[in-house]
Amino acid sequence: MYSLQENHKVLDPPSRWTCNFCGKAFVSEYFLDRHFENRHMDQIQTDDAICLADVCDIFRCDIISGASHPDYWDIALCMEDDMEELFAQCKTIVEDCVPSGPSKNETDIVKSQGMENLCSFLTCSKFWNTPYQQEENSHTALYIVLTTMTCFGIVVYNFVFYNYFYSDLVETNYDVTPKPKHKIKKFNPDIAYGDSTRLRLSAD
Q1: Could you read off the pLDDT of 107-143 as tens digits, one per residue?
Q2: Helices 80-97 and 104-117 meet at what angle, rounded to 10?
Q3: CA distance 51 to 1
Q4: What mean pLDDT comes out for the span 1-15?
């Protein structure tokens, strides 16, 4: 990888690039890279250097960083044959990156972890997943449970509060028998019809 070369680049805004090996400055990063090749070839790795951008499809750099999100066609047009090819490349990279010094058990553990954390996502069903998606889903479920329990607790509290403070008052002071608003008086025809009506009834 080019990590050694990149770590010896110093950017002074807006466009001053300085070599951290010798202190020479350039107007662009391009000329600084050429300077490394011409003056510091013995201090940078070039023979088997790997640029991570060349394997971003395998390591899913844009997906993990959040720079890329799938749409309908990305998922619908995914082909398992392409995923199998990426999986084979990923397996080769993992095997090449494991050093030969440790014991077989140790190398097997490193390989299995690399396959699980990198290569296992190279399928159409898991390609767009992130390593933190499961954790986010668990947090969402926790929020739902806590919200439900909080609402239930509020309902229970209100029910107990009402029964404790108001149930006795209702039972002792409230009479459920309906009462009229006005007192009903006994019917009196003299008052209701007056004297003229009473005289007419007598004449008849």
Answers
A1: 899 899 989 988 999 999 999 887 665 555 556 667 7
A2: 150
A3: 6
A4: 81
Tell me which DSSP letter residue 47 carries.
Answer: S
Sole residue written with tokens 């309908």: 72
- Rounded to 5 degrees, φ, ψ at 18 are -120, 135
pTM tops 0.85:
no
Around Cβ 22, how many Cβ atoms within 10 Å? Answer: 10
CA distance 183 to 1: 102
Share of the chain residues as helix, strand and coil, in percent rounded to the nearest 5: 65, 5, 30
Q: Are 69 and 60 in contact (CB under 8 A)?
A: no
Mention every residue, 6+ apart, whose C-beta is less than 8 A from residue 193: none
pLDDT in tens, 55-80: 888 889 888 888 888 888 988 899 99
Amino acid at 166: Y
Answer for the pair 26, 35: CB distance below 8 angstroms, yes or no. Answer: yes
Site of tokens 């490193």: 110
Residue 201, pLDDT score = 46
Query: What tokens appear for 92 in the block?
Result: 């080769």
Q: Phi and psi dihedrals of 199, rounded to 5? A: -65, -40
